[in-house]
Specification:
165 residues; alpha+beta; Pnp Oxidase, Chain A; 4 helices
């Protein structure tokens, strides 16, 4: 499959789907109930619009959530975004796994202003979470991408090429 076609499919998936499974990890030598295991949480996201975060998932996470605690200790994470068509076989649905590092965005970061407004436009009720509760915005800096578009169509994607595997 051509790189452009794969990029188009991935872009369309990211336009349609705005939630995913965030998986975090902390090593077995820490005092955490999930230590030594991957830990998955359902999260909502938008794609960054600012120059600094363009194309990267932006998430609003509670400071007391397990995934936030894990990120503070080990910032490597994955975000699985899957097509949600109940009429299709789940194994044939498109899905994208983004691997990278999570970075908490500073409240005074100019890029955050643009990205958080995009988030609030998608999820208006989240403005109250951010203003009244202990929530922070995070950006997933993507290092690797794995796109599966159904049986026999699995690809590792990079900025320069797409390799079938």
């Amino acid at each position: 499959m051509k790189k452009h076609d794969l990029e188009q499919e991935v872009a369309e998936l990211l336009q349609r789907e705005h939630h995913g499974m965030l998986s975090t990890f902390v090593t077995a030598d820490c005092d955490d109930k999930a230590a030594g295991f991957p830990f998955g949480s359902v999260v909502r996201f938008v794609i960054g619009q600012s120059d600094q975060n363009k194309g990267a998932p932006i998430l609003l996470l509670s400071r007391i959530a397990e995934h936030s605690k894990h990120i503070a200790q080990q910032n490597k994470a994955s975000l699985l975004i899957s097509e949600t068509d109940a009429k299709k076989d789940i194994q044939q649905q498109a899905r994208l796994t983004l691997l990278g590092t999570m970075r908490r965005l500073s409240i005074d970061d100019p890029a955050l202003i643009q990205d958080r407004e995009a988030y609030f436009a998608q999820y208006p009720e989240s403005r109250d979470y951010f203003q009244l509760l202990d929530f922070d915005f995070y950006c997933l800096k993507i290092e690797k991408k794995r796109y599966v578009a159904g049986f026999g169509r699995a690809y590792w994607l990079t900025d320069s090429n797409a390799a079938e595997s």
